[in-house]
Structures are given as structure tokens and as C-alpha cells.
Design brief:
The chain is α/β, with parallel strands linked by helices. Among the domains are: 134 residues, Orthogonal Bundle (Helicase, Ruva Protein, domain 3), CATH 1.10.8; 76 residues, Ubiquitin-like (UB roll) (Roll). Helices cover 40% and strands 15% of the residues. It has eleven helices and twelve strands. The strands form four sheets. A five-stranded mixed β-sheet has the order 9-8-12-10-11. It has a three-stranded parallel β-sheet with strand order 3-4-5, sandwiched between helices. Strands 1-2 form a two-stranded antiparallel ribbon. β1 and β2 form a beta hairpin. α2 packs across α5, α3 packs across α4 and α4 crosses α5. The protein starts with 13 loop residues before the first strand and ends in a 9-residue tail after the last strand.
């Protein structure tokens, strides 16, 4: 809205001081117990939830205050690096178990469709694609090895390679304001050199949002600072809490890290683009006059047809063309929509018949 010098009317999202905040669905999966892949505890339910996710945010206690059984312990005695390894292993074993459970079907299917399609068919429940399977097979050096000759180690290696492809993962080092957290953050970065590790303090973010809601401070999620509205109105405990957050979080890490985690996941790992669909390409509005009412997160490489499908399947059936609302140019069906595009989808009008 700043760029267009317009005041927007967000309907499916929020606009705060010119920044658009888009809701995303987050599934909270409690810590998995060892052998969850075998069904221990609520393992199957939790792992099924992971299977439906597009990406994973692995939150670990960077202060080391959680032991291997998930119980609270003294800061520094837990091992965040091992925590990440244990969870990843549980998911990899679960994927391997799915493959083993379907091995007879895979052997039958591969005779007609090949190993890639056969494996993908057995794993569609965890949102795989043939290209994902092919990439994992190549990385595991199993593309040319007959499936009937696979060992349990081969299956696990394939699962190990497949996991980061189908579930891009961001490791979040939480509680960065506590002792020993900085040291553990370094260990996480050293061990997971091929993964993204983010520092954050969820408690600080919650405190700032509540203080902003109460009118004590002015704070916008993701900001590098906050402003106290009336220092004299603060209690002694509130002043201490604000000073603590300033010293232990904002001064050290510039932000609480929470908003940055979501941004990194959406735009870097999942390679999403923000697209604004409109009905009126001259006013950038919908049929009710709301300016830039909705924003859709679309995968890199998506086309106007893909955008139409996210809005309503009928738009795909009646699709004629798409228009770039900024330039007025007609866009081809195979146009790759770009970040912050404003697009109008034009459809053919359906005739209606009246009964006499």
C-alpha cells in the first residue's frame, strides 16, 4: 500500500504500518518420544501430522534445560544437538517403516511404472512428488540398485536423504536469553552446517506483544526495537522485565527472532511469493471496493492458473486470461508470477436460464 500510495482494506490478512502479515497454519507437534515411529505414546498421531506439513520448525531449548525424556532439568545439562538428531532419526525411521510396510506393493508396481513412481505411490501420504523421490534416490546412490536388493540400511539412507527434500526444516534455538544458550547455538551451527539455525526468545516476543496490547509499549512483530509509551506508568517488575529483554535479547540479537523464523520458512525455505488477486485492476480492489483485500502465498514457479485455483476452482474452468494490474499487460498462461504481483483473473461469464 505504501508503494501504491493507497490505504488498503485487508480481508484475509492484516496490515500494520504498511507491513502485510499473512496467516499461516501451524501444527503444534509435542516432543516425540524415543521409538515413536513404532507407535510408542502418541507417536503415530504426531508423525501423521508431520507428514501433512509443508515444512518443519524444530524448536529446541538452546539453554539445555530439557533432558532426553523431555523433562525440565538444570540449564546446561541438556543437549540441543542430540535433541535435533533424535527427532530427525524418529521421522526417518518412520518413513523407512512406511516403505517396508509397502515393499510388496512397491515390487509389483515398479514392474509397470518403475521405482520412482512405485516409491512415490507408497509415500503420497507424506506429500512426496516423483521429483523428490528421484532426487533422494540419486543422493543415496540407489537409482541403479534393484529394489529387491535393498538392505534396511539402504532404505534408511533413502529416508535420510528424502526428509530434507520433502520437509525443509528450520532449527529454532529458543530461550536465547538464558545461560549456556549462546554456547549451544554455536554447537548447533557447527553441527548443522547445511541447515538454517535461528536464534529466538519466544517468551520475550510474548511479553512484548502483551505489553503492546496493553498500551505499555509500541511494538510491531519483527521490529528491532520497541518504545515505552509512559515509563512512569510501569511497575517496578515491568521495568525490570523490559530492561531484561532489551539487554538479553534485543541488544544481543536485535530481534526476538519469532517473525524472522516465519519469514525465513515461507520465503527462503518454501520459496513462496506474495500475490495480490484483484477484481478491479484500475482501483486494485475486489468487487466490494476493498483495496488489496487478499494476499495469497504461492510457490515459486506458480502461474496465473495456479493462482485462480487457490481462489476458486470455478475460476480455472472459466479462465480466459490474467492481467498485471500495475502495467495493464496481459499475462500468458505459463507466466511465472512474481513476488508482490497484483493480478486480475478474467473469466468468461456464464449464461443463466430462467424457468417460465
Amino acid at each position: 500500500c505504501r508503494e501504491l500510495e493507497l490505504e488498503d482494506d485487508p480481508q484475509n490478512s492484516a496490515c500494520i504500518e504498511g507491513w502485510r502479515y499473512i496467516p499461516v497454519r501451524i501444527i503444534d507437534v509435542p516432543g516425540l518420544l524415543k521409538d515413536a515411529w513404532k507407535g510408542r505414546g502418541l507417536g503415530n498421531r504426531f508423525l501423521s501430522a508431520i507428514g501433512q506439513a509443508d515444512a518443519l520448525i524444530h524448536v529446541v531449548d538452546a539453554s539445555g534445560s530439557i533432558d532426553e525424556e523431555g523433562k525440565i532439568t538444570q540449564p546446561g545439562s541438556g543437549n540441543p544437538v542430540q535433541d535435533v538428531m533424535d527427532i530427525e532419526m524418529e521421522i526417518e525411521l518412520w518413513i523407512s517403516h512406511i516403505i517396508d510396510r509397502n515393499k510388496n506393493q512397491i515390487k509389483r508396481d515398479m514392474n509397470s511404472v518403475g521405482i520412482i513412481e512405485a516409491l512415490n505411490k507408497s509415500l503420497t501420504g507424506i506429500k512426496t512428488h516423483p521429483s523428490h523421490v528421484a532426487e533422494a534416490l540419486n543422493q543415496a546412490k540407489l537409482m541403479d540398485k534393484p529394489y529387491k536388493d535393498w538392505t534396511p540400511e539402504d532404505t534408511l539412507e533413502f529416508s535420510h536423504r528424502l526428509l530434507p527434500i520433502i520437509k525443509p526444516t528450520l532449527i529454532v534455538a529458543n530461550k536465547m536469553d538464558l545461560p549456556s544458550a549462546e554456547e549451544n547455538l554455536e554447537k548447533l551451527n557447527e553441527y548443522y552446517t547445511h541447515s538454517l539455525v535461528a536464534a529466538c526468545s519466544a517468551e520475550a516476543e510474548l511479553a512484548l506483544r502483551l505489553a503492546d496490547k496493553s498500551g505499555l509499549i509500541k511494538y510491531m512483530p519483527g521490529q528491532e526495537s520497541f518504545k515505552v509509551v509512559d515509563e512512569e506508568a510501569l511497575t517496578l517488575d515491568q521495568k525490570k522485565a523490559i530492561e531484561y529483554i532489551e539487554e538479553k535479547v534485543m541488544y544481543k540479537y536485535m530481534r526476538t527472532g519469532i517473525q524472522q523464523v516465519l519469514n525465513t520458512l515461507a520465503f527462503k525455505l518454501l520459496k513462496m511469493n506474495m500475490i495480490y488477486p484483484v477484481s478491479d485492476d484500475t482501483r486494485f480492489s475486489d468487487g466490494d471496493g476493498n483495496v488489496l483485500p487478499d494476499v495469497q502465498l504461492m510457490k515459486e514457479g506458480a502461474t496465473p492458473i495456479d493462482l485462480a485455483e487457490t481462489i476458486h476452482t470455478r475460476l480455472v474452468k472459466d479462465y480466459i486470461l490474467a492481467i498485471d494490474a500495475r502495467t495493464g499487460l496481459r499475462l500468458p498462461k505459463d507466466y511465472k508470477i512474481r513476488h508482490r504481483d497484483i493480478i486480475k483473473i478474467m473469466t468468461q461469464k456464464r449464461s443463466t436460464s430462467k424457468k417460465a
